[in-house]
Amino acid sequence: MISQLSWKIGGQQGEGLESTDRIFSTALNRLGYHLYGYRHFSSRIKGGHTNNKIRISTQPIRAISDNLDILVAFDQETIDLNHKELRNGGVVIADAKFDPKLPEGFPAKLYAVPFTAIAEELGTSLMKNMVAVGASTALLDLPVDIIKKVVEEEFGRKGQAVVDKNNAAIQKGFEYLLDISGGPSEEFKLEPGDGTTRLFIIGNEAIGLGAVAAGCRLMSAYPITPASEIMEYLIKKLPKLGGTVVQTEDEIAAVTMAIGANYGGVRTLTASAGPGLSLMMEAIGLSGMTETPVVIVDTMRGGPSTGLPTKQEQSDVNAAIYGTHGEIPKIVLFPSTIEECFYDSVEAFNLADQYQCPVILLTDLQLSLGKQTSEPLDFSRVTIDRGALALEVEPQPENQLFKRYAFSESGVSTRVFPGTKNGIFHSTGVEHDEQGRPSEATTNRKKMMDKRMRKMESVKVTNPIVAISKYDDADILFVGMGSTGGTIEEARKQFEADGLKTNQVMVRLIHPFPGAEVAAQLDKAKKVIVVENNATGQLADLITLHAGGREKIKRMLKYDGNPFLPNELYNDCKELI
Amino acid sequence: MISQLSWKIGGQQGEGLESTDRIFSTALNRLGYHLYGYRHFSSRIKGGHTNNKIRISTQPIRAISDNLDILVAFDQETIDLNHKELRNGGVVIADAKFDPKLPEGFPAKLYAVPFTAIAEELGTSLMKNMVAVGASTALLDLPVDIIKKVVEEEFGRKGQAVVDKNNAAIQKGFEYLLDISGGPSEEFKLEPGDGTTRLFIIGNEAIGLGAVAAGCRLMSAYPITPASEIMEYLIKKLPKLGGTVVQTEDEIAAVTMAIGANYGGVRTLTASAGPGLSLMMEAIGLSGMTETPVVIVDTMRGGPSTGLPTKQEQSDVNAAIYGTHGEIPKIVLFPSTIEECFYDSVEAFNLADQYQCPVILLTDLQLSLGKQTSEPLDFSRVTIDRGALALEVEPQPENQLFKRYAFSESGVSTRVFPGTKNGIFHSTGVEHDEQGRPSEATTNRKKMMDKRMRKMESVKVTNPIVAISKYDDADILFVGMGSTGGTIEEARKQFEADGLKTNQVMVRLIHPFPGAEVAAQLDKAKKVIVVENNATGQLADLITLHAGGREKIKRMLKYDGNPFLPNELYNDCKELI
Amino acid sequence: MATFKDFRNNIKPNWCPGCGDFSVQAAIQRACANVGYEPEQVAVVSGIGCSGRISGYINAYGFHSIHGRSLPVAQGLKLANRELAVIASGGDGDGFAIGMGHTVHAIRRNIDVTYIVMDNQIYGLTKGQTSPRSASGFKTKSTPTGSIETTLSPLEMALAAGATFVAQSFSTDLKQLTAVIEAGMNHKGFSLINVFSPCVTFNKVNTYEWFKERVVSTDSFDGYDASNKMMAMQKVLETDGMITGIVYQNKEKPSYEQQLPGFQEIGLAKQNITLTKDQFDKLVAEFN
Amino acid sequence: MATFKDFRNNIKPNWCPGCGDFSVQAAIQRACANVGYEPEQVAVVSGIGCSGRISGYINAYGFHSIHGRSLPVAQGLKLANRELAVIASGGDGDGFAIGMGHTVHAIRRNIDVTYIVMDNQIYGLTKGQTSPRSASGFKTKSTPTGSIETTLSPLEMALAAGATFVAQSFSTDLKQLTAVIEAGMNHKGFSLINVFSPCVTFNKVNTYEWFKERVVSTDSFDGYDASNKMMAMQKVLETDGMITGIVYQNKEKPSYEQQLPGFQEIGLAKQNITLTKDQFDKLVAEFN
Ligand SMILES: Cc1ncc(C[n+]2csc(CCOP(=O)(O)OP(=O)(O)O)c2C)c(N)n1
Ligand SMILES: Cc1ncc(C[n+]2csc(CCOP(=O)(O)OP(=O)(O)O)c2C)c(N)n1
Ligand code: SF4
Ligand code: SF4
Ligand SMILES: [Mg+2]
Ligand SMILES: [Mg+2]
Q1: Mutation test of the interface with chain C: which of B247, B277, B279, choosing the one with the most C Cβ atoms within 10 A?
Q2: Which of A183, A349, B65, D3 is deepest in the core (most CB within 10 A)?
Q3: What is the pTM of this model?
């Protein structure tokens, strides 16, 4: 019996692999396994190799594995491109139709299962996916009934006949594999799961769910990979809550519409990827200057320009922090787990209202799109804090507007929503006085600038960094952000096994950078390795600037479009130290 | 006799103060004085106080002075707003018409001259400006003929009658002042100038002139303060050279049109200020990714958002460096003198072609609009280097495109212009192979990314920093950028007079940051004061990141919309150390 | 009930004396009062330009945004708060150069915003460059030998884009101007109101006199039917775009908000946004 | 002389089998050959979208730019090099959503660029969201209950914006499509060619059959006069925008380049850009 396993299914884009994958993994989730998925896809619609890899474990996991136990192949290309990943003794389950071949002498088993033939026999070749699910179930020696129940849920509304046919396909696949493999083997038999059904969710959905829970009722956005799923989730949910999603003409409209709506008092979201973020830069300054909250999600993908739109990268960090002309208060968050995607989404809305400034919530493609099991989301942790807000306002002195931009100690001034009696004030991107009237006076300018920037001094987030800090004299401190967390953890465990003392820090608050917190961690380590999916080491630069430690810091960078793998990271870091 | 003097003229915006000022200072330039001007104006068209201050000196100067010797006032507001700047014993020359008053006991002389009355007598009140010029000329005991010659040049094409009338106004003003002041006084008598007529020019014009000299033949831009003068200069010059200026619908069109034209082989410029720069961010990434040169001038003004559009600031530095998603090679230059504006403009075009990447030429409002005398511009220093460029291309192997993105050691590959036989290649913002065909392959990706970024390692500019480095053990090193140079120099001289050893560095290459060069300078000083017109210390951050010296660095920041003044800077720095 | 005086504040406009924008300001103030709003029920969102300053000169909520983006801001505001009367405004450069895309899409979207363009056929604030509304041959700082682009016709564009309310007026005709703004505010959907608002400082061609000689009110056409799009188009072409009054109005078409599934009358900003535990659990269960 | 085969390269398009864009590619290749260009004399500038990939699939200089910006890039290129035939292309989202402003202004500016929109009434590359060309009621991922915006009519818009060449075609009609592209390339000035190019994967409503049943060629109208703008406008409205062929052409109006003072026939890129000392001294003297 084993405690974890990697399974991959591959074929042509647009062939419906996703449903196979969805049914299989939903069943595994029901059985109480932890799952972590990775989708390989490219920027074309039909055709082109695509694959989906799932790691299945009895323990929490947050990384894909370097190698593979089982490969389900719908074409020879899938075998050709992926077989090297198979561990010694791994298995390929392939459609007999294309006469699958493994390279001579390659140490893996090949089971040719007539996916297509069985499916066609049952009525339609489309069901070859289900045959593959059945075969996989058999290999892992899982209860086929669970799978069938999921199929019922998935296809129930299409009628019992459809359900039955699909289940027949599963059954046939199941039996066929048992037949040719000679029955279940211990090698692929998973220890039982804990029976807890978890959320099986992608980061974008967790963010969307967080937004709904945070009271976001409007989203204005423009489609882009890999952000669109947030919009797709919210368009399904918001109308039921009186809200809506507007697909705008571009990202400039998206963000300025969000600013208008936030000014109007509704928590409003926009989401995009790098190209859209770049287009939003001017408006981000408007939000900062008028102290109008806005939450912007940037799902990072391979850059620059159109770059590698379907690939992993973490290269918009600098743009998120520095990318508007002039100087504004701004908060940048970067969750590193699926649960944090949810909680940080809620927190982003609170921070935006509390500090009345733009909040950029970064994710990366792997975190946004990788489907994984999540620990239960604690609703009691969801609070809605709208910051300094006056719902009713006293009459103002003659000829005075409401002092929306009152000089305050914290830098935060009380907001009112348009429509409020006695609350009339002016907002402008031009430098202004306490009432929002344009002003070029030098003393006012300095005070206003100080007031706005002062907000950054008090930014309080629960965990600006998430530290696993076991040692006061660690040999290595690993620092990362976003989806690299789980991979770092696994690589770190290998170092620990080698007898090295390692600490780990995931930076969650990217800006204002928690310099003191990170510096304290640097102090406890001899060497620091900053792990990032970009080419220049943007996080390492931030650390150097705000926490020092220039001499200690080594950069572990990967920017070929793929996430780090645990073993790869371990080996590369070994070379570095 | 004195060697320098400050003169200011003030009144209502739209009243034509500029012409007074122009005539007076052109004459001073002809006499061989060094001039440095500062315009105070606001973001409205007519009405509102405006003033123009000129420092006149027998020695080169690059800063306005803290105080004022002579104030010419067209209204009481000018006196009220500016008299405090007058030195003890200074003079106000004001239009008698508004019955000018100085505060009781204020230690300055007031000469009420009937500007308007004299002008009206001569035919039109518009000429009150000329009366003021005449009065100023008398006070300084300058030869009135020089002024008259300038008037002739200025108004010649309007006919002799106009010239005569204006000169009569000047003569009357001249005589009137002599009369009431009791003749010239040594106190305001300038030592003779050196007789050399210099260029009297603003930074924007110097940049425009540099562009013309560099072979720029197209500009696409959208109007914005304080960049518009570049466009206005080029629209006058380029058509005569076969080129043109296109006023586009926005800055996104401006920069993408410039990219298209540069791709086409013409050196093309765009220019804007902060809001426009923010809008260009996505396109800057396209330029970096497709390795298409483009030169973008950003004339910095008060930010954020619309901010203080007519005021001084240096707060787009971070945006210029970091402000596009993903990672690209990019060069950012920031001249600190009027001469550098010219030479750097030329160099910007060369660098763009040599490194095939976006080059951002920063200036600040004071440098862009402050009119000053320039040392002769050396045409022999103007060279045009178009970088690796093939005008003719050999036939390519069957089914291969020209390898426009060939992996090369330097990272720079040979360009061809569209239209070239056998040179067909593809360009795309998507990651691509050597021929420019989209590619997601991981090894190619890494190589391409490395190739592009490698260009930054070899960036060679003549003077990445301009150092006045007299001491190996300086007490203070001052670091600045842009228009602060002259002010720092004067403040530094005061410290030297106090017995302190001071060095000075102006950073000209902002990105890639000359870390080693700056570090070498840091090493030679006990303390470092970084002087910047912004609120966060963007240059100080760059130094900390790239050159270290965190413990030594103090930040001297001013962000109220006004440039630093020499004495003010001296005093503030004294407090800091 | 509020009168137009209640929509005045004590901020002195920094427009040049004689600028056409003063009358636009007055007309908006009157129209707001005539429709029956209280000052706090109105929000004016503007772009950047001389004209863009208008949001600061009316006693109402004012949002002076960025160049060319008044429309998306205004639409967001209206979606957030349906109870508010939302006016968007700005210059011809703001709305027809940098903001052209948003203008077309706001028209298509038909959210209930009244958009008033102060059309002086030039860039005022940046001191006199060509605008898309400048006539061919018009000489400015940026086109010293005369503009060589085709002049944009806002009315043709709006009709082509499927506008449900298109009007034009002239800033000296306070009565008509007030009336069309009022009609625009009463219109359920997006209304575009182009106002000839002369720039006395930089535009020496399209002056008050120039306009006075050329504008033709729809009143002067016998049997003009503002609900007939083809007729509207024809008259716009015939008058060389100088037609004033309500040029076209489609009263049938519902606004965007009215068509939104689940969208409620009560402003979103006033709704309770807290989920119940039960609602949350249901949302979570979808991922199990 | 080059044939259409010379405009082929060996790159396999990554479009879905059956995508309308294949025919657009073929038509461009034919038109280029028919007009008499050599491959290196042609440049195709495209935006981002499935359609945007086209610049990589034609043997000519190709510039695959960013979403919505093919037109300014193309105009810059044409100004830089008048000898080049410049084609701009992209999708309906690219040209009419994010790029709408540039489209209107490119039309007004009238630089000699041939703009081909592959109009599938949906966002293909991002997997099926509403585009400005989607019909009201059209259900997509982003409008699951149906689009509630007014469909954009590219032909109306182009006419309203003052276009000098407006055409439309259908990707299965290779002959007509080639002919209008050819005519567009021969037109001196900006030409807009909207091509119905079905997305077989995401648009299950506006299919080949759907179009086949609806398109009407200008050939079928007796006495159609493409130089008559009002007639063009009327026919566009009458056919509900389904008219194909050359809808409008103004052969009189000179292009932008032709009107530029001092602009020379020879491509700027080929001119000597070095100033003489004398020229420089004169420029400097102006500042003395
Ligand atoms: C992004 C951006 N680009 C340019 C500017 C500079 N700018 C301010 S107003 C304006 C145009 C003014 O013209 P118009 O919109 O017609 O308004 P008017 O001043 O004529 O009322 C420009 C180009 C800016 N503020 N922001
Ligand atoms: C600035 C920016 N925003 C969004 C995207 C994502 N995106 C790529 S193509 C596209 C639209 C595709 O639709 P269309 O232009 O009609 O082309 P089609 O794929 O249908 O041919 C979008 C939104 C992008 N690449 N850049
Ligand atoms: S410049 Fe023109 S538009 Fe601006 S305020 Fe003056 S008159 Fe009005
Ligand atoms: S998704 Fe549609 S538009 Fe894109 S390639 Fe496929 S069929 Fe063509
Ligand atoms: Mg205007
Ligand atoms: Mg499309």
Answers
A1: B247
A2: A349
A3: 0.98
Name the average pLDDT for chain A. Answer: 96
Does the beta carbon of D57 lie inside 6 Å of ligand 4? Answer: no
- ipTM of the complex model: 0.98
Q: Which CATH class is domain A4-197?
A: alpha beta
* Closest by Cβ to A559, choosing from B273, B306, B449: B449
Question: How many CB atoms sit inside 10 A of residue B164's CB?
Answer: 15
Burial class (CB in 10 A: 0-12, 13-18, 19+), B165: buried
Q: Are D168 and C171 in contact (CB under 8 A)?
A: no
User: C160 and D153: CB-CB below 8 Å?
Assistant: yes
Q: Which residues of chain D have pLDDT under 50?
A: none
D115 ligand 4 Cβ < 6 A = no
Partner-chain contact C40 A283, CB within 8 Å: no
The maximal CA–CA distance of chain D, rounded, in angstroms, is 72
Between the alpha carbon of residue D178 and those of residues B155, D110, D116, D246, the distances in Å are 60, 22, 11, 12
A201-381 with A465-576: one CATH topology? yes
- Residues enclosing ligand 2, CB less than 6 A? A 222-224, 251, 275-276, 279, 306; D 48-51, 67, 90-94, 118, 120, 122-126, 131, 199
Give C-chain residues touching A246 at CB under 8 angstroms.
75, 79, 109
- Kindly write down the DSSP assignment for every residue of A121-162, as one continuous string: HTT-GGGHHHHHHHHHHHHHT--HHHHHHHHHHHHGGG-HHH
Whether residue B245 lies within 8 A of chain C, CB to CB, comes out as yes
Q: C167-218: per-residue pLDDT in tens?
A: 999 999 999 999 999 999 999 999 999 999 999 999 999 999 999 999 999 9
Reported as type and span, the H/E element at residue C174 is: helix C174-186
- What is the per-residue burial (b if ≥16 Cβ within 10 Å, else e) of D144-172? eeebbbbbbbbbbbbbbbbbbbbbbbbbb
Contact: A239, D201; criterion CB under 8 Å: no
pLDDT band at C269 (very low <50, low <70, confident <90, very high): confident
The shortest C-alpha distance from C102 to chain D (Å) reads 8
Q: How many Å lie between the centroid of ligand 6 and the Cα of residue D180?
A: 20
Residue A229 confidence class, pLDDT cut points 50, 70, 90: very high
The residues in A 139-168 lying below 8 A from C, measured between CB atoms, are: none
Binned at pLDDT 50, 70 and 90, residue A101 comes out as very high
- List all residues 6 or more positions away from A448 whose beta carbon is below 8 Å from its beta carbon: A405, A407, A431, A432, A433
Which fold is adopted by the domain B465-576? Rossmann fold (3.40.50)
Mutation site for A-interface testing, chosen from D142, D148, D149 by largest number of A Cβ within 10 Å: D142
Is the CB of residue A482 less than 8 Å from the CB of residue A546? Answer: no
CATH no. of A201-381 = 3.40.50.970
Asked whether the predicted pLDDT for residue A310 surpasses 90, the reply is yes
Q: For chain B, which ranges sit under pLDDT 70?
A: none
Of C97, C130, C141, Cβ closest to residue B250: C97
Answer whether residue A1 shows pLDDT above 90.
no
What per-residue confidence (pLDDT) applies to B41?
Answer: 85
Token pair listed for A277: 């973020």
Of chain D, the percentage scoring pLDDT greater than 90 comes to 94
* Residue ranges of domains in chain A: 4-197, 201-381, 465-576
Average pLDDT, chain D: 96
Burial class (CB in 10 A: 0-12, 13-18, 19+), B408: middle
Predicted pLDDT at A13: 87
Give the single-character DSSP code of B48: S
What value does the mean pLDDT take over residues A520-531?
Answer: 98
Kindly calculate the radius of gyration of chain B based on its CA atoms and give it in whole angstroms: 26
Structure tokens at A84: 């090297």
Best residue for ligand 3 mutational test, from C12, C50, C121 (most atoms within 8 Å of Cβ)? C50
